[in-house]
Design brief:
It contains 3 helices and 4 strands; from the N terminus they run E-H-E-H-E-E-H. Strand 3 and strand 4 form a beta hairpin. It has about 110 residues and is an alpha+beta fold. It has a single domain (about 1-10, about 30-100), classed as 3-Layer(aba) Sandwich (Cytidine Deaminase, domain 2), CATH 3.40.140.10.
Length: about 110
């Protein structure tokens, strides 16, 4: 999670909120994300996670997590700017997909 001020300025280094398991699953707790955001004084946040296999297609769990994060952000008055999925592009670089761009109804 990257905590930002109201103008998009970075307040701190990215904060690791959870780490995936060997089976490829991650349990993201919206409370943990926003506790860290509020502790950093964030008014806006960007969250990201990786897909080490290279497939950037959002899973059902990714979409459900995004919905939970969006709802929590609204309740707390913190603007969720995006949820990114990142992965190696196989050529030494990084590729990503923006869930804000591909999710219908993103209004934050």
């Amino acid at each position: 999670m990257l905590p930002l001020d109201a103008n998009g300025g970075v307040l701190a280094e990215p904060i690791t909120v959870s780490v995936g398991h060997s089976d490829g699953t991650v349990g993201v707790d919206a409370g943990a994300v926003f506790r860290a955001a509020l502790k950093a004084g964030a008014e806006e946040v960007v969250v990201a996670h990786n897909h080490p296999g290279g497939d950037l297609t959002p899973s059902k769990a990714d979409l459900q997590t995004t919905a939970k994060l969006r709802e929590a952000a609204k309740l707390l008055g913190v603007k969720l700017l995006d949820h990114l999925i990142v992965s190696s592009d196989g050529k030494g670089g990084v590729s990503f997909v923006s869930l804000a761009e591909i999710t219908d109804g993103w209004t934050e």
